[in-house]
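My current task is to audit a protein record that another person submitted. Please read both lines and tell me whether the C-alpha coordinates look consistent with the sequence. Do not assume that whoever made the record got everything right. I have pasted the whole thing underneath without changing anything:

===
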Amino acid sequence: MTLLAPLGWHIQLHAMADQIAAYAPLLKRLPCQIVFDHFARLPAKGGLEHPAYEVVCDMLAEKRAWIKLSAPYLVSHGSSADLQVASLGSALVHNSPERVVWGSDWPHMTEASKPEFQRLKDMVNPMAQGDTTLLRQIFISNPNALYGFR
Protein backbone atom coordinates (compact mmCIF):
# COMPACT_ATOMS: atom_id res chain seq x y z
CA MET A 1 0.00 0.00 0.00
CA THR A 2 2.83 2.40 0.71
CA LEU A 3 3.94 2.01 -2.91
CA LEU A 4 0.57 3.14 -4.25
CA ALA A 5 0.27 6.52 -2.53
CA PRO A 6 3.33 8.21 -4.14
CA LEU A 7 2.07 7.10 -7.56
CA GLY A 8 -1.32 8.66 -6.94
CA TRP A 9 -2.95 5.25 -7.25
CA HIS A 10 -5.98 4.18 -5.27
CA ILE A 11 -7.50 0.94 -4.07
CA GLN A 12 -10.91 0.03 -5.42
CA LEU A 13 -12.54 -1.95 -2.65
CA HIS A 14 -15.39 -4.35 -3.24
CA ALA A 15 -16.25 -5.34 0.31
CA MET A 16 -19.47 -6.00 2.13
CA ALA A 17 -20.68 -3.27 4.49
CA ASP A 18 -20.02 -5.49 7.52
CA GLN A 19 -16.40 -5.90 6.39
CA ILE A 20 -15.99 -2.15 5.92
CA ALA A 21 -17.25 -1.56 9.46
CA ALA A 22 -15.05 -4.33 10.89
CA TYR A 23 -11.90 -3.11 9.15
CA ALA A 24 -12.53 0.61 9.62
CA PRO A 25 -9.39 1.23 11.73
CA LEU A 26 -7.21 -0.39 9.05
CA LEU A 27 -8.96 1.38 6.17
CA LYS A 28 -8.55 4.75 7.86
CA ARG A 29 -4.79 4.16 8.25
CA LEU A 30 -4.10 3.30 4.62
CA PRO A 31 -1.82 5.85 2.96
CA CYS A 32 -3.71 5.87 -0.33
CA GLN A 33 -7.21 6.74 -1.50
CA ILE A 34 -9.95 4.11 -1.40
CA VAL A 35 -12.80 3.86 -3.88
CA PHE A 36 -15.70 2.06 -2.22
CA ASP A 37 -17.30 0.14 -5.07
CA HIS A 38 -20.99 -0.71 -5.44
CA PHE A 39 -22.42 1.83 -2.95
CA ALA A 40 -19.94 0.37 -0.40
CA ARG A 41 -22.31 -2.62 -0.46
CA LEU A 42 -24.52 -0.76 2.01
CA PRO A 43 -27.97 -2.32 1.91
CA ALA A 44 -30.33 0.09 0.18
CA LYS A 45 -32.93 -0.64 2.84
CA GLY A 46 -31.51 0.38 6.22
CA GLY A 47 -28.06 1.23 4.91
CA LEU A 48 -28.06 4.70 6.45
CA GLU A 49 -28.21 3.08 9.88
CA HIS A 50 -25.45 0.57 9.12
CA PRO A 51 -22.14 1.21 10.96
CA ALA A 52 -20.29 1.20 7.62
CA TYR A 53 -22.27 4.25 6.47
CA GLU A 54 -20.59 6.38 9.14
CA VAL A 55 -17.17 4.94 8.27
CA VAL A 56 -17.66 5.71 4.58
CA CYS A 57 -19.04 9.20 5.23
CA ASP A 58 -16.17 10.02 7.59
CA MET A 59 -13.61 8.92 5.00
CA LEU A 60 -15.39 10.87 2.26
CA ALA A 61 -15.42 13.99 4.45
CA GLU A 62 -11.71 13.55 5.21
CA LYS A 63 -11.07 13.24 1.45
CA ARG A 64 -9.55 9.79 1.99
CA ALA A 65 -12.12 7.96 -0.10
CA TRP A 66 -14.56 8.03 -2.99
CA ILE A 67 -17.86 6.20 -3.41
CA LYS A 68 -18.84 4.59 -6.70
CA LEU A 69 -22.51 4.38 -7.57
CA SER A 70 -22.41 1.09 -9.44
CA ALA A 71 -24.25 -2.22 -9.51
CA PRO A 72 -27.43 -1.11 -7.72
CA TYR A 73 -28.71 -4.66 -8.18
CA LEU A 74 -26.17 -5.80 -5.58
CA VAL A 75 -27.57 -3.63 -2.79
CA SER A 76 -31.33 -3.83 -3.34
CA HIS A 77 -33.91 -6.31 -4.54
CA GLY A 78 -37.65 -6.50 -4.85
CA SER A 79 -40.44 -4.27 -6.04
CA SER A 80 -39.20 -1.11 -4.28
CA ALA A 81 -35.54 -1.61 -5.25
CA ASP A 82 -35.26 1.55 -7.38
CA LEU A 83 -36.73 3.76 -4.64
CA GLN A 84 -34.48 2.23 -2.00
CA VAL A 85 -31.37 2.66 -4.12
CA ALA A 86 -32.37 6.25 -4.98
CA SER A 87 -32.70 7.05 -1.28
CA LEU A 88 -29.31 5.55 -0.39
CA GLY A 89 -27.64 7.14 -3.40
CA SER A 90 -29.17 10.52 -2.64
CA ALA A 91 -27.82 10.42 0.91
CA LEU A 92 -24.33 9.58 -0.36
CA VAL A 93 -24.44 12.21 -3.11
CA HIS A 94 -25.61 14.98 -0.82
CA ASN A 95 -23.19 14.00 1.97
CA SER A 96 -20.07 14.45 -0.18
CA PRO A 97 -20.98 15.47 -3.72
CA GLU A 98 -17.36 16.04 -4.69
CA ARG A 99 -16.40 12.43 -3.80
CA VAL A 100 -19.01 10.48 -5.79
CA VAL A 101 -18.47 8.80 -9.16
CA TRP A 102 -20.64 6.54 -11.28
CA GLY A 103 -19.78 3.19 -12.83
CA SER A 104 -21.70 0.85 -15.11
CA ASP A 105 -20.26 -2.38 -13.62
CA TRP A 106 -20.14 -3.81 -17.13
CA PRO A 107 -20.10 -6.73 -17.99
CA HIS A 108 -22.38 -7.50 -14.99
CA MET A 109 -20.86 -10.90 -14.28
CA THR A 110 -23.19 -11.67 -11.38
CA GLU A 111 -26.37 -11.11 -13.36
CA ALA A 112 -28.04 -13.73 -15.56
CA SER A 113 -30.23 -11.01 -17.06
CA LYS A 114 -27.96 -8.09 -17.95
CA PRO A 115 -29.31 -4.64 -17.00
CA GLU A 116 -29.62 -1.95 -19.65
CA PHE A 117 -26.80 0.60 -19.62
CA GLN A 118 -29.09 3.60 -20.06
CA ARG A 119 -31.36 2.48 -17.22
CA LEU A 120 -28.37 2.21 -14.86
CA LYS A 121 -27.15 5.64 -15.91
CA ASP A 122 -30.62 7.16 -15.56
CA MET A 123 -30.91 5.85 -11.98
CA VAL A 124 -28.45 8.54 -10.89
CA ASN A 125 -30.83 11.37 -11.84
CA PRO A 126 -33.14 10.96 -8.81
CA MET A 127 -30.09 10.51 -6.56
CA ALA A 128 -28.98 13.99 -7.62
CA GLN A 129 -32.59 15.19 -7.56
CA GLY A 130 -32.21 16.26 -11.18
CA ASP A 131 -29.56 18.84 -10.25
CA THR A 132 -27.49 19.24 -13.42
CA THR A 133 -24.52 20.58 -11.46
CA LEU A 134 -24.45 17.44 -9.30
CA LEU A 135 -24.91 15.20 -12.33
CA ARG A 136 -22.00 16.92 -14.07
CA GLN A 137 -19.87 16.35 -10.96
CA ILE A 138 -20.76 12.66 -10.73
CA PHE A 139 -20.28 11.88 -14.42
CA ILE A 140 -17.52 14.32 -15.44
CA SER A 141 -15.74 16.46 -12.82
CA ASN A 142 -15.30 13.85 -10.11
CA PRO A 143 -14.00 11.08 -12.42
CA ASN A 144 -11.62 13.65 -13.93
CA ALA A 145 -10.30 14.42 -10.44
CA LEU A 146 -10.10 10.77 -9.34
CA TYR A 147 -8.46 9.39 -12.48
CA GLY A 148 -6.47 12.47 -13.46
CA PHE A 149 -8.22 12.91 -16.82
CA ARG A 150 -7.37 16.11 -18.62
